[in-house]
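Hey all, sorry for the wall of text incoming. These are the two entities for the joint prediction.
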Amino acid sequence: MLGVRFGEDGIKGALVGRRIAIKDNIVTADQPTTASSRILEGYTSPFDATVVTQLRHAGAVISSKVSLDEFGMGSHSQTAYEGAVGSPFTRNGEALSPGGSSGGSAMAVADKSAWAALGTDTGGSVRLPAAYCGVVGFKPSYGRLSRWGVIQYANSLDTVGVLANSVADVESMYQQLDHHDARDPTSLPATVRKRMTISKIAQPAPLRVGVPLEYNISELTSAVRDTWIFTLSLLQSAGHTLVPVFLPTTRQSLSAYYVLAPAEASSNLAKYDGIRYGRRTPGNDASPAEGLPLYAKTRGEGFGEEVRRRILLGAYALSSEAIDNYFIQAQKVRRLVQRDFDRVFSTKNPLIEHAATPEADGAVGVDVLITPTAPTLPPTIAELKQQTSVESYMFDVFTVPASLAGLPAISVPIPLSAALRESIDKQDVRSVGIQILGQFGTDDVVLHAAKMIEGLCAKA
Amino acid sequence: MSVPSVRLRSLKALPALYTRPGYTTRPCYVSKWLQSRGLQVSTAPPPNAVPLRKHLKDEAKRKKADAKAGTGLRRDNAVTARLQKWELTVGIEVHAELNSACKLFSSATAASGDSTAVPNSNVAAFDAALPGAQPQFQVATLLPALRAAVALGCDIQRKSGWDRKHYFHWDQPNGYQITQYYQPFAKDGAIRLSAEDGVPEEDLLGGRSLLIGIKQIQMEQDTAKTTHHPPSSYHIDYNRSGHPLIEIITLPHIHSPQTAAAVVRKLQSVLKAVDACTTGMELGGLRADVNVSVRQRGTIGSSSYSGVAGLGQRTEIKNLSSFKAVEDAIVAERDRQISVLEAGGIIAGETRGWSLGSTETTRLRGKEGEVDYRYMPDADLPPLIIGNDLIDHLRDRLPELPDTTVERVQREYGVTEKDARTIVALDDGDRLEYMEATVELLQPRLLDVDDLKLGKLAGNWVLHELGGFLTANNLCWSDLKIYPIDLADIIAYLTRGEITSRTAKQLLEYSNDDSTSRRVGDLIYDLGLLLRPLSDDEYTELARTIMDENPGMVAAVKEKGQKGKIMWFVGQMVRRGEEGTIEPGKAKEVVERMLAE
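and here's what came out:
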């Protein structure tokens, strides 16, 4: 048993006494949970989320509930009703984005107020803030960690993730949470978990590392590209094989994501009407005399701008006139994204009986893919304010494909080269997030590769 | 790890709730719900619910009255002329509450029919749409749904799915209803109806029966119950929220209002027979929406639905809660549509409402006001996979369907189809059980009478004599205290010629009297009711006395030859003779002989 700890009162558990910050869209019975939304103001859940219960059983201390982009919708943690999350870094005195939506979780880990944190990752919401705050952020395969008690944003994509200062710490958290939960109907059943264990590759053989050429986009800044190349060369010198691979649907996946996630959000957020819990606009909110739909005032005032935008986008994508062109098309793209991945990984997709394989294309598969987590270093808050909402969606371009396919993905901070460090502000970030992706269910392979890269960087 | 599912009942123990000053916050559902617990939530049947028997009786009465009234005739003629020109087409959607111990997606008790349940006491986290709660499909709810689908001859789909149907209403906590829109679990069934089910002759087109296609059956969630407290308060009881329903969608194969009502009635009887549902329309367990369109006979309309093309533009009338409402609403809507079309207007595709007693449907919302339900697969719920072994198991153990029962009752007990149908339909099957028990008890009592004859005897007594007794005394079936063994004794004594039929009827009253626990045999001996044959002399003496008192009547027979008056003398003898002593046949013989002298 890895890392069993003993508390002062003799309690045994892997996480005894560890302070864990919980993203505030994961419900806790002893503290309010608002998903950083005004509409859930004052709401305390009558039950703990399963992941919280699991942490408590392992002896962990829930140290705080931390802010997020309202309901997880955002990439910079600037839309929380209680106020934006600040980054530990600045550039020439300008505040930087901490990344989002699990910005509060990444910050808690970065400033060491928590030993580790739980976040949620729907399209990159654990990996992006990890990259921007210089910590490790892991999104396991969809269905490994229970979502019971996790406030839905886009439930076919929502995944509980872990943030910590090292891959080992992430792993010890993950091991406490990686169990079937009957109350989450999307939790992977024991039979599938067993099948995935069998497909595990032998470690620590040299890895075949895939490099998706589509990720080398023009928007990639040189700091990110150089660090990516540096990481790959470290691996190559350590005896691993680099393999260029093609993931042709990468470009379309961002568009597909921004159709599917808002569509699901418009449905999942329909329950917030101010009737049973949360905030309600005083007065008659269901007055046909005023010609307004039910709850228009409560929902109009309770939700922030970005949430309202995504609900409208999603409602449109599902409307009878648009569903064929938007929602259905996006689902098809999602399948293609999954097939892209199945065609490059050596491990067969355990969820699909007749999954595509590299062998079918006359190729040899790879064990992991290595990409940047984000195309740029964190932007300043001032820069963000210049951007349109669509431009800001660009930050998710590298994280969204793994979300669409439900794959395990981790962002590891790789130190900037000495030359680069010299050229930038002392208060600026010191690392770039590099992402490692694996086939569905090969979470252990991804963690193994991450630890190895972490080790190679420490030696370098 | 097993953690008991969260019930809101236990939420009283919640820690003090966090509120931020300066804002109106709703502290929690709990306090709201606790308040509502003091409330009387109405559980009385809807005021417009009409029991089947009463409905049938009223219908017969109405038809008789219509036939009598001259104006009715004139109106009928006008209606007939219209209906010869216009053809009505109806498709029905029936929503039925499944007989289930738990809700569709939570283990909370499904106690919507339980009037004693405290409001909001059977509510799991998902039923109240608490943040972070997820649905858990309860396999047990599938069984009554499958029984219904098998009974209605549907193809059970191996794979079906769950979809969200979005609309805002306070009785819909999630903001969507989970239903089966894209992939229902059952398709392509049918239900057969005959004249005895209430289908008019002209709908049968000379055939014995009519087959109405069922497009599909889907499972879905029921809504919460709202009670209105004027002027502007609504109280919501989430006990019903998430209760499993099936929606049965018929094809637009129905062409008269009476047949439409008959379809709903028949569906209810089938659902009850296979135990898919326990409460019928009269208690709100069944609700119907009807799609109504008309077109001129011989023309082809430009609308279509459920895969049937060439129809006129349809309107939908929602939430009909009695058979009578189904029929009356269709009549009203048919007539409205014809009037609009004859005046050169066009029918708008819209949703309309109907309230009992009104003569017109009312517009609820038009197409522009129509909700776009934004159907979407529910990503939390895996597809529903139903194995053939389960279907076979249920098919083998399916309870007898009403039509089969009627056939069996005719065959085994020799009663007419009409009587068989009535016995089967009455008192939720109790009447039939009563009759079957009576026959079984009669067999050892009347060994020399064949079974068919026993069945006929018992059928006659259970249906007509007991029915007449109840009506005469203004009692209902549940007031009956006569047991099958009492009735069997009465029938046996009568059949053996040991009591008169007048005595037999009197015995019904004695047996139903609470104050006696005596068996029929004891009653007969104690009260001296046994038929005591009189001698010829005694008959003659009694007849003589009556004749002496009524010389006019004697003269009428003897001189005017009014033979019919003979029976008057027989009646007088039966009345005047001591209880249970005069046999009418013998009395007639004596009177005839004496008057012939």
